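Re: the multi-chain job from yesterday

Posting the exact lines I submitted so nobody has to dig through the queue logs.
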Amino acid sequence: MFGENDELILFHLTLQRQTNYVHSCIGHFIDVNDDSSQEVTGSKVNRKRHLQLCISTQTHLELYDVSEGSLRSLAVVPLFATITAMETLNLENSPSSFLALTSDSGNLTISRFASIEPQGKIVLQALINQPLTRSGLRRLSPISHLQVDLHGRCLFLSAIERNKLCFVANQIGQDGISIQDPLEALVPNTLTLDTAVCDVRYDNPCFASLELQQGNHHLVFYVLDLGLNHIVKRASYKIDETANFLMGLPDLSKYRISTYMDSNEHHHGDYDEINPFVLVGFEDFVMIKDLHGFYNIKVPIPRRKDVSMPTTIICFAIQTLKNNFFVLLQSNHGDLFKLKIEPNKEDSNRPVAFISYFDTIPQATDLHIFKNGFLFANVEFYDNRLFQFESLGDDTPIEGTFEPSSTLRNLSLVETQKNLNPLISSQVTSTTPLTLAANSMNKTRFMVNGVDFDVHVSSGVNVDARELWSIKFPSDNYHRLLFLASHDLTMILETEAGAMGELAGEQHEFKTKSDRTVFVGSMGSKSVVQVCVNELRQVVFNADSKKYEKKLEWFPPAGIRVVAADCNYSQLAVGLSNGEICYFEIDTESLSDSLHELQNRVEIDEQIKGLAMIPEPRSDYLAVGTKEANLKVLSLKKNDMDNFLEVVSLQALMAPVSDLKITRTERDVELHIGLINGLYSRSKLNRYDGQLYDVRNKFLGPKEVTLSVLPSMSFLKKTSDEEEEEEEDDEDEDEGTETTKQHDDIEKDAKTGAKGPCVMLHSIKTWVSYEHDSLLYIRPMLLRHPGNFVKMCQFSTENLKINGCCAIDTISSGASLTIGALENFVFRDKWFQTKDKICLPVGAVEEDHEDNEERIWPRLYDGCKIITFDDDRKMNLFIENSYDGNQVRVSLARSQKFFNSQVSNSQFEILENMRAITAAITKFSSNTYYLVVSTTHNQLYTFELIIRRAPKDKSIRDCVGEFHMKLLHKTPTEDKVHAMVGFRDKLLIPVFGSLILYGLGKKQLLKRSISSTTASITKISSLANWKNQRIAVGDNRESATILQFDSTNNIFVPIADDVVKRHVTALTFIDQSTVIGGDKFGNIWTLRLSREQESLIRSNFPHSLDRLQQYADLKNKAPNIMACPLKLSLINHFYVNDIPTGFYLAEAVQVSDRPIILYCGLQGTIGSLVPLLTKSEVNSLRSLENVMSDADDIFYLEQENQNGSSTDQPVDEDGLDKDVARPLGSSSNAVRIPEGAYSIVGRDSFKYRSYYAPVRNVIDGDLCETFLNLSLSEQTKLCKETSGSNPEGVCKQLNDIRTNYI
Amino acid sequence: MSEVQGQQRYQVLKHKYVGLGREHTTQEEWLSNVHRDTYHSLQAHSGLLEYLALAQGSSSKRQTKIQLIKKMDQNKSRPNES
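And the result, structure tokens for all chains:
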């Protein structure tokens, strides 16, 4: 499969990063609104408010801005390390917050977000990398808990066992920071459960920790004496052994609460010292304790009705108000409680605490309250949510039990961040567009890689239109005319005040009958040029009579036809069938729009198929595409008359041109060519000499490619509902501000590259080609209904301001005109758009909209398995288990549309009193589908699947059919069955170590064959079938074994196993002798039977297999480990830091030329492994990977060398310095980069990817892609290190992998 | 190096690197270290913790995490006193 060489080299690319956000913190990390017109005082107030949110998984972090009440993504930072703790560090006088990180590099990293010009991209910069300990996650490494003093004076780090460290932080200058040597506190044999920072204002920093020492739980207070510079264990209190949670409370004395026992007595010397309070969580109660041990205020946690499990607190948020404060505590059942601590007036203002029920939201890792009234819940499982406080709740204390409310009482849901964590069941349902289905929190989520076309209006037109143009004069805001052309008719539609109607015949002098319109375009200030096959007309809009009046008529020579034309503001080129090009130009100075023809025509000896000019006031080049598969660029430079209309550059193409277009962005001019063999080619045109460079090709399918240009699209447009809201808001405002605001938005978009031209590629499917962040994307367009567009054009009206498009759809009888908008563009950091399909529980109203705002559904169903049908991959069966564990929900969908159940009124069927482990669909030997579900009660339930597809009728569009499951029988098994696979006409089921083939019987499934595997295999976790000849067995501990079916004896014979114990979670075959699998430690590996051994097997199977022993002498000495004659060899090994739950071999993803492997991980990762085929590809990517991995050293050494050579010279004045040595920062004064600044935390990425075993033959594409985030000078520097590459070439290669293979 | 010196040296090193062992290390001590390392690894890797929490049907990941840390202490034999 992969060539002669036995080595298989894979390129690993994470398509969607994991979403198991385990750390989060808030602060003001970067000024993002500094260009806003707010006055200085206003922005200063903003500066102090912490309205930015940083959330991180163990491998990447994301920054969001919450100041506008929504999660606005600012930055995504991939890290090639395991983050173990993250906290905000606010220095007193520093305008923005720092981010403190600890990771398995063993370093404490202090970093900061900075924006890099020119595009304002936000990156994370490491300022300090302080080594603490060895790398890796060790129990003694002080990286597990991180607390920061509230005034940024020190950091407190703790390991799980023994070690505690404290760093004193100092501010240097305006935005610098330094840390002193660590102060150590070692307590042997002590485990730290939790740590907290205490609010002591400007007293000596105090930290509390919950410690466990030989069965005894202690609450320990550590105080850092800033004067003496040492840390002391100030107090330790033995507490109840159910302690599990700790948080610091605000300084109570600020709220007129007496914090000392008796205000008259002086305890422990200094009375001015603040007595800090902490809250300790136990099972079923919490306790408020203080440093001096005066108080033990016990508050029971309210119990849920009918819940016997102990209630514990899992997270908290503190909201401080002007003269009081409250704490939100979340219990392990998800209930939020509001805890208030108040002075007890009757007891000399000593603290007294009340707890009241607040609301119920899903269990969260962290809660954050923002000063603008929002609450962010970093949820443990599934979607993160942003809430807004509606009220602060009532303060009625709860005694005893309570019933949680099913709707939100005091919060309202504002935004949901769709996460796939945990991703237990998944399936690839389509490869073009690439679609994965996943079960997630009661609903089915489809991850689609494509750009949505949101249809607003669609109606049939009575011309059989094939071409479409929209016209807008330079002074217009919206498009005014729409031309539809068939082979002999032209229809003109006019928009007026949002309505659309056919332009009346007396209002215009366009040619509408008995000629085919080749091209329509607007020229000058108010002219329209209509080019027909036999005639050219220039029509001018007369504003007085509101009529379109004919100004010029021009005819081609007799017998010659017009074949192509293009125009811009001042130029018009017309291509004739005899190979001549007529050139016209408008006299721009006279403003009369009069068109003049150039007298001498240029003749090209080839058949012209397309013409294009740069869409700007005057184009210097004319591109001509010909039938002879050539592309010629002619010069139209005004000041170079010698070369006027001469060929300046030429590109040979693979096939005759079918269509040709030019687009223009801020930086580049791009040439788009569609060929008749289905290839699309994009190249860039040099503005100065007309040369073509940076050619990209993509095959789109076996049909000629035609192109439509949408000159200005906003790439950040999301689904329409948000847009509507925005527009409504706009309307409320004053009209003047509206336009300026819009204008600002547009300008901002253009600056950040969020707006640009799109080219629609029409072949078998319609594709969208766009460039964002200097990467080219060619992605399929997604239509909700069947159909395919043949032509599109930009069309903006009052109702459709952004991204409006018009399209002709010709799949059904006759053409229809569709108006809609492109939205949900996908990018490198957001490769999939998520589409939720809800199957709500019984009794609930099924609503179309995605989230019911008043209600957050509890976790009712978890995914179990998604099964595709072998003969129809679009058909998927979803098996879900209810959270309480005694229901199974089954639903069936085809192409994201669900079947109705025949018996119930819903789109699913419920199977009562069972919990599924796995399921499989097989036909046995009949023509009916049977579903076999294995349950925790050691039963196999066999169902007959009755599927009735609805006839293809458009009237009932939403209904795809009906299904029903008829229970046939139950079969008891001896063991819990964790994997099943259909094999030939039977079902293969593992029971302990043996493999049993079941056939269909009348009363139950019947055992047809029993074969034993090797002795060590006891718990089979996954199975894979290769063409009904071989199976691969993955064991929970014993790695993978390949067995071959011996049809004469009707049994499986083990032929090869592994030498390493791997805890297999998922595996699949990639070819006959190779399996790819993952284990529960987050590794992906491929195992292969070598070519020679494969041929040995083939010739000897099954009779003389025993003689094949690979290590014959070992067989006698150690028969237990040599149960299989052959051993698999490890081909690839790679650490992904997520537990793979499914592998899929996907052929021709997005019409690519090679199959790729897709995998899904438990924490929500969707990744791909692309096989690399050529040696040059491998070499260049490998050298890129090497240099990226060495970037830390390269740049640090360079800095050291520079500093060594120019010690006395001030670094600022060195002109080179800015360009080379300080590539990271935007600040002009050279801040020294710490060692390991490019990996942020100073982790060697190779070591990270070799976490458990060395990386083998896998190139880390994620690391390679970080090359794209570097500045040009950094890229150049790194390219110098690798011989023979340049930044453009590297970027192109990385881009090509995305566009062509995934 | 005399045996006493060796013993002292070993104790010094062992104080620094808790998991250190030698030929006299008892099975209990060794096992206790393995257990502690294992439980620590399970709670420190977010994927493994989630895997475990889901498999146990735990109501919250934090609960699983705390349980695992508490289990590290369960074997009360003192690994440092060899």
